[in-house]
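Dear support,

We are seeing what looks like truncated structure output for some complexes. This example has two components. We would appreciate it if you could run it in full and send us the complete token output so we can diff it against ours.
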Amino acid sequence: MTPLLTKDSQKHEAALRAIAHMPTRSLPVLMDSNFTQQLSDADFMRIAVLLAEKSYLEGGCPIGAVIIDNETRQIVGKGHNTLVQEDHPYNHGETSAIRDAGRIDFSKTTLFTSLSPCDVCATLLYMRGFARVVIGDVTNASGNEGMLLAKGLQVSILEDQTGIALYARFRKEKPAQDLEDWKGLCAVHQDTAS
Amino acid sequence: MTPLLTKDSQKHEAALRAIAHMPTRSLPVLMDSNFTQQLSDADFMRIAVLLAEKSYLEGGCPIGAVIIDNETRQIVGKGHNTLVQEDHPYNHGETSAIRDAGRIDFSKTTLFTSLSPCDVCATLLYMRGFARVVIGDVTNASGNEGMLLAKGLQVSILEDQTGIALYARFRKEKPAQDLEDWKGLCAVHQDTAS
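Here is the complete output from our reference environment:
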């Protein structure tokens, strides 16, 4: 069985978008390991941003994440925020990707997130022993990078301007949804009352 | 439509077990509001423990949680750990109950958990603005009660001896599963290697 994307295929946007949308367990029908090994950190971050774009087009919050095996560079989990899509009060990009990966040893993996992690996700990243986290946007949010470093994670900032522009647009369009996603509906109610 | 449990029904163990197992949205077919209003904090904690028991009998980690509306005392969410059942690397009792509740204002609710919350769940409790948390076991685990108090939550300890004995039994029977549930598979691998 020859997959669609092999070592001679181009790493263009349509290929990365197909990877973002394909269920993780089905990725071998889309690309072989030669293609995967050509993907750079910036490419994995772009896949996280394309997951954020998918969520945005569904009416959700535009935050995505991808987890790769550090040795093989294969994608072992990915996902996006599902506050709206699953009526889910805390499923952010990171929690979505970790849920998708299942019960694996995260100390052998790197997580790429399109937006700087919230307190819950940052806590989960060190509690599950991640080796490294790569953050695509510290412009719209930041704050837990120092805590992650203190907990022994390798932290890389690799800003993706498409993702930053998309999140800024979402925040302007749906400020209440953005606030709920960070601090819950109680914060929206307090904000409305004041 | 008259439900099974009304104001004259007894609050015995079989009734509380049926409540634990019934899907939250279907609870009105099981009991009416008069029955619910007779339930004490200790009864809700017992329901959390019966959810822990359900998980234990499924081969999972015995931790359960129940969320009630502070005004009506109706159950708005509940669940148990699903590390094994859903191959879910972080779904604890608290996260399971919060997912079940969906996008509600948690500042008007109380969460009953059969075991003291881990760092991730404690962070989620304050990030979603819970008013109160009731903890059924600070014998097998503890440590985040002070942080929750500092974040403005009301914290009550209401130990349930059945739940404490069940968790101690599980920990003795499946120490690796217990360790994975707290600190991830990486901690199990480190433990095996040392």
